[in-house]
Predict the 3D structure of the following.
Amino acid sequence: MVFMATKISSIFEFTNVKCTSLDPKFDKFEYCYLKSVNRSYKYVSIKVNLLKTPVTKVKVIGVLFKRFNGNRPFMYNMSIDACRFLRNPQAYPIAKFFFEFLKYHSNINHSCPFDHPLILDKLPASFVNNQFTKDLPFPGGDYLFESHWIAYDVDRAVVKFYGTLS
């Protein structure tokens, strides 16, 4: 009997990003877009201006969906105190995995309070692809990562990242 080892590789690419402010008196998205530079280079950029600063109490709810006759929850549905997480990311391994996507491309690199605009600058699909396919083997398909940003126990914004893993 002969066994052959093959390397399976997959590619992640963004398909859309949507940002919604649920409280325009608290926050306002200056921009939120997916830019396709060429066939192989796409990136996401987001800037949200906080209108009532400093923000000292933030909670994030993140849900990963996979498309099966509509979007269905897939593997992860987490709620974390963002201020506590940013003080000690090692205490939240799953949240840390998703935060690694943003960490090097954003200014969300310190704990509370937040008293400045929050920026995600040119997060490339290739970086997400590297994290998504090498660290955790996800099955191919269409995915949605939806995050709700809650400040002072009020849902303030929703950010949705859409992508395909093939």
In short: Helices lie at 82-87, 93-103, 125-135. The first helix runs from residue 82 to 87.
